[in-house]
Amino acid sequence: MSDQIKYVLDEENIPKSWYNLTADFPTPMPPVLHPGTHQPVGPSDLEPLFPMELILQEVATERYIEIPEPVRDVFRMWRPAPLIRARRLEQALGTPAKIYFKYEGVSPAGSHKPNTAVPQAWYNKQAGIKKLSTETGAGQWGSSLAFAGSLFGLDVLVFQVRVSYDQKPYRRALMETYGARCIASPSTETDSGRAILAKTPNSPGSLGIAISEAVEVAAKNPDIKYALGSVLNHVMLHQTIIGEEAIKQCEMAGDDPDVIIGCAGGGSNFAGLAFPFLGLQLRGGRKRRIIAVEPAACPTLTRGTYAYDFGDTAHLTPLVKMHTLGSTFMPPGFHAGGLRYHGMSGMVSHAYELGLIEARAYQQVGCFEAGVQFARTEGIVPAPESTHAVRCAIDEALRCKEEGKSETILFNLSGHGHFDMQAYINYFEGKLVDQDYDEADLATALAGLPAVAA
Amino acid sequence: MSDQIKYVLDEENIPKSWYNLTADFPTPMPPVLHPGTHQPVGPSDLEPLFPMELILQEVATERYIEIPEPVRDVFRMWRPAPLIRARRLEQALGTPAKIYFKYEGVSPAGSHKPNTAVPQAWYNKQAGIKKLSTETGAGQWGSSLAFAGSLFGLDVLVFQVRVSYDQKPYRRALMETYGARCIASPSTETDSGRAILAKTPNSPGSLGIAISEAVEVAAKNPDIKYALGSVLNHVMLHQTIIGEEAIKQCEMAGDDPDVIIGCAGGGSNFAGLAFPFLGLQLRGGRKRRIIAVEPAACPTLTRGTYAYDFGDTAHLTPLVKMHTLGSTFMPPGFHAGGLRYHGMSGMVSHAYELGLIEARAYQQVGCFEAGVQFARTEGIVPAPESTHAVRCAIDEALRCKEEGKSETILFNLSGHGHFDMQAYINYFEGKLVDQDYDEADLATALAGLPAVAA
Questions:
Q1: What is the pTM of this model?
Q2: Do B351 and B240 belong together in one domain?
Q3: Domain range spanning residue B312?
Q4: CB count in 10 Å sphere of residue A65
Q5: Quick check: is B44 in a domain?
Q6: Has residue A294 got a pLDDT over 80?
Q7: Which of B208, B228, B248 is the last residue of a domain?
Q8: Where residue A296 sits, what CATH number does that domain have?
Q9: DSSP helix/strand/coil, A159
Q10: Is the ipTM above a cut-off of 0.90?
Q11: pLDDT at A119
Q12: Contact flag B375-A178 (C-beta cutoff 8 Å)
């Protein structure tokens, strides 16, 4: 074991391939179904929305897929991301455990999201696309795609949920600094937006509505494609660069994680860190505990059902078999906007069904408490989403203390909280409370799942 | 020349010593004078405010001063800071010049300020001090001292200029996340604050008033010392870690800068990058162009006088010979709050008088234009202060293009702008305008300089 704090790889050690867990799953994933016919979708069904290279990645079964050189060249701006030993946090906890975190907040947009925004922008550019449309809630994804678009000369149109557009002007400013155009959703620029506004002129918007607007714009214009920042298989694939780097960095540190932790909304930062380690296990390596942490107010894995469901509230998307709370489920307004999604990546759900990963749900006040302890020991203020992983890492380290075990804990610090300080203000002012979802709403949402023959 | 983008040194390459330019100045610096007697101050005059180790560094003449191991250990959290080749910016400009920047925004607080906050907190802790008081305007310094205090278990009291306290709640939240207490200045907690409030109950505050409050608290309580984030010799000393690293990194890159650029308010990030290179020159190395960039609305070097002056508006500090606009000078309210200071570091001023460095003043709109171009090519949104260095680097690169010269340009990107997005919003909305200072105000301020016998 070395005595370093940071494990930083050279640029030539940026992985040359993404890792595809599909190749190593012991049983294949259920197919994605057409929303009308309930038959497996083919590449042509997805063509209006995505360029063919991404569609092929969505259904790929090869274990490794090469990262294009121009994409790796952009990654050199901030990757390899550091693996950091949280020695001061360990000392503050008095734990015999070793705590490492992979820090993805070093990216220009401040989170792991550019790991997929850059290749998505690149493949679209290669396909002759001029413009991308997308939605954003918390703003991490919108600013990442805006950044990627600026590098490849693509116009980026971001439908930002109205309430976020109004309450987070600095996130919007970041997107505009990168040259993107932000539109408050619901907007008058699409049929779906106008339909909502006709009924509810003061609608605060929702991710579901914003997705509908972004998808509509892409579906109606051959020069515009749609980009999604989580959930889909190709997004999980792109994020595996995190875990591929972390495997090398753990070797540098002379250490091997016993517990691997990531927060999970759509599942991409969790999958990015965990899947390469899980692949090692499925190919004969040792078993590690792998924990997905979700908000108690939106507990997709711990309380949802494994079933076919729509990815959006307007039911425009294909049907994916996943852990879901039902596409009409309305989580309460907690602060980790990036974790407020009714469903979960099909790949993460499949791994959970196979018993390959654990899941845990946390209330937000304890997460912010962990975030503040982390900031005061390690200096970095975590994004509200990432505080869920911090909370779990601290709890595991305290368990090690109780049990007198010196396990090695690795978690993904998916982003910094520089654009989320209002949540910390609310926490300090005691305005942040734990929140439960509405049981009746959940029951209704689950009862409304589409009937799909087995 | 290598083909890398980032030049990242290992932790063991964090410099073991700070470089003291005083040792190599061809003529000695003028002494600091007591405000009452106009005689050179001795260490005991400064003891109520600073611990002895920092006072000794203030007057030190040795070329190298050892960095304590516990301070280096904290630096390992983010240092060595990367040297980055701005290839995409070079391409966008079509320049034959090579542009490198040293990126100090990787620190937890987001700027170069922790380079001095950490040793200042450490020396105070060693001296048995329990609490530090300071002032902050833009907030970079206050959050850096708050961060450093949290690591060493020191209480930190920050007098934040009222208008900044009200307008920048996220900066305040960052300081509070690190455990500091922020007080809007003028406050009812000090005589000087109460005196102001009695006269002007709605006073927006000023850096001068906040300094008076922070100094008063320290002067009246033996357990509390005062900490300053720029201007003083020991602050310049601590920042030389930037340039010491950059010299090694330029060697890694196989390149040697012809032009070195930093923005200058009190002078510390500029000095931090430039002084080690200047030392090489003064010890027989080659001459490089070294440019300090200041705001046209507060042009201390380009329009100020070299004279003895007070560091604060309330005239509590010793007299320092420096480039000054006069301590009563009121710059207009432009956006780079970190550059709104009437004076300049005595060391930087001395170097300027000796003809060792150049100075240049820029208006703010062109600086933000450069900041946006930088963000769209290099991904990082610069702090408003740092955009001055970016503007100058771009202008030098465009000069190289005109002259067909492939010079190497190195600038200090002293911090990111994540907590300054309102300035970018104003820029995009066309509300940002170039601003000139009031000539009559400058004349009055200069006429009011203290009369000090030569």
A1: 0.96
A2: yes
A3: 6-16+65-110+234-447
A4: 18
A5: no
A6: yes
A7: B228
A8: 3.40.50.1100
A9: strand
A10: yes
A11: 98
A12: yes
